[in-house]
Amino acid sequence: MQCPKCRAPMHTYNRNGVQIEQCSGCRGIFLDYGELESLTRLEAQWSQPAPPPPAAPQAYPAPPAPAWGAPHGGHGHHGHHGHHRSKSFGHMLFSS
Amino acid sequence: MTPAPLLRALAARARAAAHARSSACPCGAATLADRPDGIVVRHADTVAKAHPPDSDPAELAGRLTLATRLPGILLPPLDPTPLALHGRLVTFWPYGAPVDPDDPDAAPWEAAATLLARLHRTPAPRGLPPMRGPAKAARAVARLREAGPHPAAASVLRAWATLPPWARAEAPMPHTSTLCHGDLHLGQLVRRPADGPWLLIDVDDLGTGVPAWDLARPAAWYACGLLPPEEWNRFLAAYREAGGPAVPVEGDPWPALDVTARALTAQTAARAVAKAVAAGRPLDEVEQSVVDACDRMATVPPQLAQEHTK
């Protein structure tokens, strides 16, 4: 078939069982009825997270924090702090 | 910047004091700090400190005497009497090994908390002046106002406005019977000898007041998402374990910490914004997180500190 936009020939590709037509000129993609939904469904299955690992046992419950606290601060989101343990963080703990 | 004659005179005095202590001095000299509020010079095992220009001699004398009397909590000076040098009061101290600023994981949270709890439990001598924490926070905010326009300044000032007058140094502190350090951060801990126990240094802000002020920096760092919950827990648990009176023995500590943690967050943000304006640079990620906390603070009224059994 010809590309409805630039009239160049379109080639058929198979992506995870879905036939899609791509234009050899403008690289535009043509989807038949239902193909977008099929791709979306496949994508959702692909990116669905693995079941979460069991929570690491904590020595203490997460300590309370004030209402104005950082959204993740003090709620046991351990990974959140990694990027803050930078040099400037270290030095902030040392200045008055 | 420090006038060169003062720095030179201070270095010479440190050298003389070091040589008076040891006939075999390796003569290693360094300037440890050179800030408007204090210059610290090291010569081998001896440190000389020029106190802030506005230091009151009688108040400093009282603070130095206290450091001499609490050698297990505060590093004692070599001589409790300050020397006048180029219009500044100068004191001499043994050198102590500091916390490594490049290794926050090695921070001695338990030692800091235990020293504070012991300080807070020590009866305050009569005549000791008030702790200077609120005055320093107010000064940081005053400098922010003078620094010139910055988009984050309004957030910091709104957060500051949520505080009660005492926390802004506009009224006396509500409780003035507890001995407080007044300016706790990780640069205020040294070990002497280097493998010995930790001690608190810097008596300039020492005095009587609200002990929660001394817990407020770690509390603020935790609230701003900068200090991981585990480390905050270690600090708080050690303080409680040592019988510190600033927070209830168990349960939510925030009613007791909210005002002071807000004050230190606003102070830290004010300093950061004023520095960024002076340097013509943007806020870094850490500074921005403290300003963001100020933003949120303005929408939440302060928690009322409830009286608790001490």
From TrEMBL, chain A:
**Compositional bias (Basic residues):** 74-88
Q: Where is the composition biased (Pro residues)?
A: 49-66
The record's annotation in Pfam families points to: Zn_ribbon_TFIIB (PF13453)
Q: Which domain of life is it from?
A: Bacteria
InterPro entries, from UniProt?
Answer: TF_Znf
Domain Transcription factor zinc-finger, first and last residues per copy: 2-40
UniProt-annotated stretches for the region Disordered: 45-96
Q: What is this protein called?
A: Zf-TFIIB domain-containing protein
Organism equals: Streptomyces tibetensis
User: What taxonomic lineage is listed for the species of origin?
Assistant: Bacteria, Bacillati, Actinomycetota, Actinomycetes, Kitasatosporales
